[in-house]
Structures are given as structure tokens and as C-alpha cells.
Amino acid sequence: CSSLAIGTTTGYRLFSLSSVEQLDQVHESNEIPDVYIVERLFSSSLVVVVSHAKPQQMNVYHFKKGTEICNYSYSSNILSIRLNRQRLVVCLEESIYIHNIKDMKLLKTILDTPPNTTGLCALSINHANSYLAYPGSATSGEIALYDGNTLKTACSIPAHDGPLAALAFNSTGSKLASASEKGTVIRVFSIPGGQKLYEFRRGMKRYVNISSLVFSMDSQFLCASSNTETVHIFKLEHLTDSRPEEPPTWSGYMGKMFQAATNYLPAQVSGMMNQDRAFATVRLNISGQRNICALSTIQKLPRLLVTTSDGHLYIYNLDPQDGGECVLIKQHSLLGSGKTEENKENDLRPPLPQSYAATVARQSAVPSTSTMPGYSEDGGALRGEVIPEHEFATGPVCLDDENEFPPVSI
């Protein structure tokens, strides 16, 4: 949650989110129009782009060098792409491709997945724990959990009654949050076991389309946004009976009565009564638009970031102690004229030391057409078989410069 990537009708833009007041544009490309997927590998120079002009083709770039590392074509439109330091995952409507990001080799094809028209999938950002989650059913809320490192199915989680709408791992890959198309209940499961840890009720009055689920980096908070004007932030904490005695009030007395009553109610009913409400909320000044949220620390304070499909970024303060209504402190337009004077000064800095950029820029490391072989030539991988590690050729991508990446805490 330290940078923002947006696709536009003219190309794509990358922004740094290190400041509240100043939105720094890191890069802008107008080489490919109508970009609808742009995924950056953390703070590195590796970016993956898919355009409406060629929706079946994935282009991998090193944007600081202006070099195309490779491009792959698929049998149908690419719906989503996820990546960490170990794996690059490409999701089509009825299949998923898993690549080794260090050489872009195809490791595994998961064929005949249930119809997944939105390309819903989640990949743990912790590369030592590269779990992949995707819908295990088109009619129910079953989650298929796959180990992207061992390339084996981990488990199946019966998360919801209705079809899934959102999935998100926490930063360590030890928890997975999910929501169904109804959008009323959000559940959090342990990974890889699949045990239910938390259940949050977003609201009972109306069904909503949850478009974004995200954990804070410390896994203390979970944020959910939808097509309504309200963003909910839940706090992941276990309430125990060791809390200090509350002063005797009518509401406290009734609360204890309800708590006692749950011991005699069916599990389904008592579970609903024990669900937690939102710890903090935000009321956007728009509704009906798709948006993406992030919980981040900017200038040493916890912030909620909301990016809307009309091209705006909203930054809110989050009170980690008392929650409540978050306060809007800054609004940025993402579709402005381009770099500011401050951004231009950043371009005058001395060049970074040689990194894996030097590797990807060498022609000897890349086929002369800068295009990797299509999957039709990868017979074994096309049938869903695993390519043994010793068969990997020296590929065009060598992530050998750890200075390009933020530190990883495992």
C-alpha cells in the first residue's frame, strides 16, 4: 500500500503514496492505450500491463529502463493478474496460469476452474507463503486454496452460501477475508487450515456489491468498500471475559442477558448475535462507483485511502484507538496534466546502481522478438502438468537486486 497504479484510455500512471499533501507521479506511459490492468511488483520497476486493444496479451515491462521484458498471449481475455516476489498469476474466466516470476516460466496451469467472470482471485504478498485463493464454485461461496510454492491444492473452505464477490489475504498470508455477492457478512479464515476466526456484519438492510477488501499491514484492521457511500473498517480482536466490570447500566444489564441467552440458542442464531459491528466508517460523497481501498501508514500515521473509478484519491485519518467516523484530510485528482515541478526535480537524481534492469535490457537474454513462446508450445504445462525446476532455462527476468524491493518481514 505504498504506491498506486491506474490504467487510463491513453496508458497507465504510477504514483507514490509517501505524502498526504503531495501526490508524486513516479511514471507515466502512453505507449499502450486503454489499459485495464496494471500491476506493479511492490516498489520495483517491474510492471505488468493488459490493454483492451489486446485483452489476451500480458506485457511485462521494466518501466525505468523503458524495456519490454516479455509478453505472453492466452486463449481468452485476461481478467486479473496477481504477483509477489515468487509468483505471477494470470486469471482467465475458466483457467489460471502460475508463472515463476524470476524467469517467467509457466509452472502450472489450473484448468477447468468454475466460471469466474470477474477474475476474482487473491495471492499472498508474502512470497514464502504464496497461497492463491479463487472461487471453488460458481453457485456457492466455496474458496479453493492453492499453494503457489508447492503447486498443490491446500484445502477448500465453505465460506458463504452465495457466490463469492471479494477475497483478500493479510500481509503474512496467515489470514484470508471473504465476502459473498450479498455483501452482508464478511468472514476471516486462518490459512492454511481454513478455520473461521472472525465474522463481521456489514449491514442487513440491503445487499451490496463489495468491490474491495483489504487488511492493514499489521493485520489489526480489515476494510471493506462497496457500491454504496459507506466504507467499513473492522477491528480484528478477540473479546474475552477478562474485561473489567462495566458500571451497572440498563444497556450493560441487557447485554449480559443477551450474552447469557446465546448459550441456549442454536449455534446459527447465537453466532449472528455475537458478530461485531464496524470499528470505524467513512461516508464518501459519491456512491455507485467502483472503488479500491487501502489501509496504510503515511508520515507515521494510520490512513485510509480510497481511489474511485472517476479518477480521485481520498485520504482519511483513522483513529486506531477509538475508531468512529474517519476524517477526510486530502483529495487528489489522478487524471491531471502530469508531473509537477517537484516531480521533475526527482528525475534529476543520479541513476540507481545497476540492477536486474541490466539483465532484462540485454538482447542475449531475450528472444529477438521480445516475445516468449506461446503456451501452445508448452505441451506439458498446457495440460496442467508441473515443469520440474531443473528444466528451467535462464530466463529474461533476474530479480537479483534486493535494493529495488522494500524489506520483507516473514
From TrEMBL:
Keywords for this protein: Autophagy, Lipid-binding, Membrane, Repeat, WD repeat
Membrane-topology descriptor: Peripheral membrane protein
Main location: membrane
Location of region: Disordered: 363-383
UniProt subcellular location: Preautophagosomal structure membrane
GO CC entries: phagophore assembly site membrane
Listed Polar residues bias regions: 363-373
GO biological process, one term: response to stress
One function term, GO molecular function aspect: phosphatidylinositol-3-phosphate binding
Family, similarity comment: Belongs to the WD repeat PROPPIN family.
Name the UniProt record assigns to this protein: WIPI1 protein
Name of the gene: Wipi1
